[in-house]
User: What shape does this take?
Amino acid sequence: MAAAADSSPPAGAAASGAWEWEGKVVSPVAAATADEAWALLSDFLAFHRWHPRVAACRLASGTPRLPGCVRYCEGTVPLAGDGAAPPADWAHETLLEYDAERRFFRYEMNDNNMGFGLFFATFRVVPAAAGAGCELRWEFECEPVRGTPREALVARLQAGLDGMAARVRDHVLAARAAAASGTAAVAPAAGELKLDNSIAV
Assistant: This one.
């Protein structure tokens, strides 16, 4: 059963029924079933465990997994040559809809320091169309991002999703090996496998 908040965009955001920017990125995970992947990725507050460019993700307000809850996400920042670190990317994001049965959640980015205005995204885990495994899908609808070409945003989303798919694959394979040997698998800790210094929303 789906739980949903009012997920309608603000008046004027897409009055014509089409967003200026919208799209989808997909990453296959042949080693995991949709249920296995969803079990790992369904926690709206565990983004930092699976996304390779997110250092922190925590509840800012509301009740976890219930529409209306807000998470705070912060990206990783490498030290510059002089040892100084630029400000980390950050964003507050509001959960709009959560459907465990259909394995998806939808959210809106709110205040942030990355140049985003209106931004809505849906994260899904679906069985692979052919063969074993599943696919991770990240769909977005947004206004153009200041200073960022659409292609660059799509590339950032794809890189982030590919990193998540790799972590899910590695965790599932490790869990199966651990089950076979009687040991316990451990989810990746924040700070591992970072790709660069930017949150990919």
